[in-house]
Amino acid sequence: MAKNDVEPPANSVGRSGGADLEPSSNAGGNERARKAALPAPTDGMTWRWDVASHAARFGVPPNGTSFAIACDRGRLVLRRFDAAPRGGQGTMSFTGNGRVASLPAASVGDTTSLSSLWQAVERPSDRTAAVARVFDGPAPVEIALAGTTKLVTRSSALPARAFAACAPPAAP
């Protein structure tokens, strides 16, 4: 042993040096607990593609929409259909597939009726790419915004289709 080396404790698992460490005897339990902690998708809601607006919509079929992702004139538009206060500003957060991302959001619409909603609008950027990566995987995605009901979407390829519609053209 070198002068500054420290002897590992007698109850450590694996060989010294760390390269050949044995998995924890509780690794299976840890994985089960991690999977159990994942949020369950919001009941009865599914993704669908809206041809007219070129948008991925999540909500209760056939026409209910709680969340939508669309590309409008080169801008990515994410809408959370939930009551929003007049002049409200906040952060729309996305958590899933081992990733977290967020975009600034503002309330839009007539706050005296049920047509008010939260909206994040941004040209394709590193921030929108980070949000797209949250949706890129097999796990549900949790969408949160202060003052709204937490929404958990099912895994689907449709969000990727909406993000791709706004992707800048590849350089020649």
Write up what this structure looks like.
The protein has 172 residues and is α+β, with helices and mostly antiparallel strands. It has a domain of 120 residues. It contains 3 helices and 9 strands. The protein has a 9-stranded antiparallel sheet with strand order 1-2-3-4-7-6-5-8-9. Strand 1 and strand 2 form a beta hairpin. The longest helix is centred in the N-terminal third of the chain and has 11 residues. About 8% of the residues have low confidence.
Notable characteristics:
172 residues; alpha+beta; nine-stranded antiparallel sheet; 3 helices
Record the SSE blueprint.
Blueprint: H1 27-37, E1 46-50, E2 55-59, E3 67-72, E4 75-80, E5 89-96, E6 99-108, E7 117-122, H2 126-135, E8 141-144, E9 151-153, H3 158-165
Antiparallel strand pairs: 1-2, 2-3, 3-4, 4-7, 5-6, 5-8, 6-7, 8-9
Indicate the percent of residues in helices.
Answer: 10-25%
Major β-sheet strand ordering:
1-2-3-4-7-6-5-8-9
Overall body shape: globular
Unreliable spans:
12-24
Separation, N- and C-terminal Cα atoms: 57 Å
Task: Count all strands and give the number.
Answer: 9
Characterize the largest beta sheet: strand count, sense, and whether it forms a barrel. Answer: 9 strands, antiparallel
String of helices and strands: HEEEEEEEHEEH
**Overall mean confidence score, pLDDT:** 79
H/I helix tally:
3
Gyration radius (Cα, Å) is 22 Å
Strand content: 25-35%
Helix/sheet category: alpha+beta
